Amino acid sequence: MKAMRTSKLLSLCGVWTLMVGLASAAQTLTMATEATFPPYEFLRGQEVVGIDVELSRAVAQRLNRPFAVENMDFDSVIPAVISGKAQLAASGITVTPDRKKNVDFSEPYVTTGIVAIYPKTTPYTAPEQLKGKKIGVQGGTTSDTYVLEQLKQEPERFKTTAEACAAMLAGRCAFVIADIAPAKNCVKGEARLALSGFLSSESYAIAVAKGQPELLAAVNATIAAAKADGRLAKWVDDYTAESDKLKEVAASSAEASAKSGVAAWLSAQWRALCDDVYLCFLKKAADGSSRGMYLVRGLGITLEVALASILLGLMLGFFVAVIRSSHDKYGYFPVMNAVAKVYLTIIRGTPMVVQLLITYYIILRSVDSKVLIAILAFGINSGAYQAEIMRAGIVSIDPGQMEAGRALGLSYWQTMLKIILPQAVRNVLPALGNEFIVLMKDTSIVGYIALIDLAKGGDIIRSQTYSVYLPYLTVAAIYLVLVMSFTWLLGRLERYLRNTGADPVHNDS
Ligand code: GLN
Asked: Is the pTM of this model over 0.85?
């Protein structure tokens, strides 16, 4: 009997070990990157491609694991491997002593360096010229450290090198410092800009979390093999060619500025605008979809996150408001009231973007769906504000209403739900509407967790076409239409509630 039980136990253990083994064999190898760094990583339509992607995919193939890419801000790439969100950080990352303290680096796969990009109107001759000038950099990069440590000044930090260059062309900074590859890409086809010689020598490597010798060995073996059999060189050639083609400027925009005479100027401007519209929204990319799809898909994500978090916030808000006001008026639910107060204090006392990042990196670290993470973070945040608005509504209702409900034989909760809340909601609908509008626009920070919403979609188009006005103005116009439609709907709801039994005091019918 005992022997049977032991053998059963052993076979169960065997099945368990096999399952764990299978699960870890099939565990996805995720690469964290920031896809505005051509040719190492950039977007081909929705897909992240580039030299680093090929290298990391080859590591996954070597390990026989499924492969995924997570696109995020550059300064989140190393934290992503430290927190376990990703296993490889490959983003043209320079090996530096500071970074080595936090992660392990593979063998370098390329030697390169940083350069200054300058407008030809202020020719650059020597690094001393940079001192004391406004210098644009991509935040968190070695260019950022160069300005801080070598020039001993604060740089102007941007999310991408392309953004820094656009700012320089708009006269917002004197120089931009960046790695040579993206710098070349920025200068390509841009007659007003030129590049300096190298300011430093750096090498790129892939980073993994500390204490993973097998993974590191697999990365090193992959790099060595790709160097030896010529794959690395081929990726460099292919992706440099492809990313060069990405950088397009509307053909007639240069022509437009050359025309003279008002009518000719106007017609040239009109043609330039049409070209810009074509380039930014209609032209088909390599994957067959047009750039406008970034906005269409982004709008879908914005609506999904905003509507779901408004609903979640409403439920939370109702609940917390009832608890808080019942406690204040009748002394009910003391424990839940204390919890609600802590919730309100923490949520209202910390910035939304920090809450979003904490949810993404710490609390829901193992959740893959970024949409779900965003909905929970925004819903929980909005719940706190809606709770206070709702509480104001509940407090504004005459205590006689509760007494009347109870006298009619309804329970406390029934009176709350059927008599008090409908009137409270009607009273605070304008304030709630305001909160919904703020929430809808606030979702534009989901780009921080690399979710491509409407705002981020516009940003991607801007970074690929270097056209600033059209993508941003279009995104602004879409948000405006969204908010106006929403305000109109709320107005209708208000009118409807005014004309129905929800307003027992002022009901005209
Ligand atoms: N090589 C630079 C760094 O590691 C910049 C990398 C990047 O912007 N992707 O800081």
From this structure: no
